[in-house]
Design brief:
The protein is of the alpha/beta class. It is built from eight helices and seven strands. A seven-stranded mixed beta sheet has the order 3-2-1-4-5-7-6, sandwiched between helices. Bound molecules: S-adenosylmethionine (SAM).
């Protein structure tokens, strides 16, 4: 797969370190705080987790939170340098395993872990079919819970970007999915979306999704 420039940058020691340093910036701290608040709300609903796949794990930003749920965590990322950085940052309480993989081709069996966690990847995937395949893979590998983010096609931010493009702006359109599309992909995989709030109510595009495998219907 050809990676967009920004993603190719993550796959280097400098790119991995730069992503870590991003979280020193004020705007990142702000969105990180809001994101963690929503995730904590999701995790209160989920309760203890036996096993989790964090893909993409980046430098391990969410490893302590997943460990906090009691999960044995496999960290995965297409960037070997991100995996290396996470290993060195969390030597004291490392992940159970590290796996270099693409989000839309996860080399794990169906239902291999109780929860698949995939934050801040989908909106980086430029090809819409790869974005859909990423979610199919998340649902396939998750035995019970799927927790991920994507950029909402119908959010004010996406609308504004499309409008600006029509008016001549050169800024790239957002790589989005519609809420209906995400719910349909979940349903096809046997999941139900339990919650899918926007990261920020005003002017933001990312949605965080908590989906649960639907209980088998009695015969
Ligand atoms: C914005 S970071 C998010 C990392 C982490 N989930 C977080 O929230 O801090 C995006 C990550 O996705 C990884 N990545 C980019 N494209 C990928 C792909 N197609 N498959 C797997 N990982 C990918 C990058 O190496 C990077 O670590």
């Amino acid at each position: 797969m050809t990676l967009p420039h920004r993603l190719a940058e993550y796959d280097s020691p400098e790119g991995a370190q730069e992503y870590l340093e991003e979280y020193e910036k004020l705007h990142r701290k702000f969105s990180d705080r809001r994101e963690r608040g929503l995730l904590q709300r999701f995790f209160r609903r989920v309760g203890p987790v036996e096993s989790a796949l964090d893909l993409p794990c980046g430098w391990g930003r969410y490893l302590p939170m997943l460990h906090g749920q009691g999960a044995r965590v496999v960290e995965s990322d297409f960037s070997g340098d991100m995996l290396k950085l996470s290993r060195s940052l969390f030597r004291g309480s490392p992940a159970l395993g590290h796996l270099r993989a693409f989000g839309h081709q996860i080399p794990m069996a169906d239902g291999a872990v109780e929860l698949v966690f995939s934050m801040r990847l989908n909106h980086h995937l430029v090809d819409p079919e790869v974005r859909r395949q990423h979610l199919r893979e998340v649902f396939r590998v998750a035995r019970r819970w799927a927790l991920f983010s994507y950029f909402d096609h119908d959010s004010v931010k996406s609308w504004t970007r499309r409008l600006r493009r029509r008016l001549g702006s050169k800024r790239r359109l957002k790589s989005t999915l519609s809420r209906g599309e995400v719910r349909a992909l979940a349903a096809e995989a046997g999941f139900v979306v339990r919650e899918d709030p926007l990261l920020f109510l005003i002017g933001s595009g990312p949605r965080l999704v908590l989906a649960e495998r639907a209980p088998a219907s009695p015969d």
